[in-house]
Amino acid sequence: xxxQFLGGVETVTGTKYLIEANGARVLRDYGLFQGRRKExxxxxxxxxxxxxxIDALVLSHAHIDHSGNIPILARHGFDKPIYATRVTRDxxxxxxxxxxxxxxxxxxxxxxxxNRKGFDPVVPLFTMEDAEASLKxxxxxGYETITVAAGIEASFIEAGxxxxxxxxxxxxxxxxxxxxxxxxxxxxxxxxxxxxxxxxMEDIDxxxxxxxxxxxxxxxxxxxxxxxxxxxxxxVQRGGKVLIPSFALERAQELIFHLASLYSQGRxxxxxxxxxxxxxxxxxxxxxxxxxxxDEDFHALRAKIGEVMRPxxxxxxxSVEDSKKVTGSDEPGIVIAASGMCEYxxxxxxxxxxxxxxxxxxxxxxxQAAHTLGRRLVEKQEEVxxxxxxxxxxxxxxxxxxxxxxxxxxxxxxxxRRVQPRxxxxxxxxxxxxxxxxxxxxxEGLAKDVLLPKDGEVLELG
Length: 462
Known about the structure:
By secondary structure, the protein is an alpha/beta fold. 33% of the residues lie in helices and 23% in strands. It is built from 14 helices and 22 strands.
């Protein structure tokens, strides 16, 4: 019995682990690595396993850094079951097709722009055909325990990260021995609206846990309304726009929830609110159809105002023409657009037209990986590159970390305290966060062993 860390170990994207027991081999997640274009391409197109030897894939949730490279497996002949919650399955139907569309469009654009004279044409990392082939492999499950391969059971447990997200406990059996491995990557926060709080685990030999924010504390999640309200009020008073780069999945819906809450209290001025993302539009519909998974905050607001996810004053812009009208307007308003790290999508057009206007505010509401435009905005660099051109950053930039869907240092320590694992293995973080959390756990005496695996490392389990 062993586990190999194939990605998302010393970084926060491209998560993938290989779990082996009793001759069976199961992948847990197969995410897309995000970063510098050339480096990301090289990492993503390499398949570090023989897909013919894999018996199943267990998927935690639909975020692209955990699910986004699954079509590559299908391209290489993978045809075994992909187990995920039913909501994750429905969300991946949107997310993976969109990822394939982006890959195809980017390749077509680069080939047209350069004419590729004397060069091989750029090919997509994967195609819509690959995405559709992988989606046929999905088998939806509830928050329950199922057998995923001979000698390997997987329990799906509420992770509290995004709608449908799951932690997993893998019960591995081989030669009369049993090992229980808990995987809490990604792990959500308590008290965040819409999704239910994360559950816990019992009798865990090894806990593999994220450490994305292992060296810092978030602002109180209950202050998200207040933070957002203050930024909007200041921006509107000076006649500017609020531009919010947002992940289309979960963060966009969370923003709608907070805006609905503020409007219900009469705390926001009546200004246009645009969700400029066709994918966010589709995902919001999935949320509307799965309200049984929502928490008490959601149902309380729904009882007060009725429709929460698609209120009449929020405009979803699907067409390019409508998006251009929003971009070209100088009227104060709120624009929520993907992508969350400002690496592609419609937010780039809004930033291109709005980043040099000092009346505007760019509001960062999610983690920004190294080497992304989003990270450069967080660092408040005076010049940023958008679509190959340099722009002076004159717009204000505000980081609202009360919106994070990841557990912070205190949340992570508390989770380990509740689970009481025999060993802890920290992944899914930049190195300084991971090391800081390891030190904190050792000082707290919460685990005899705190492991910091390297990419590609194999850990023997018994």
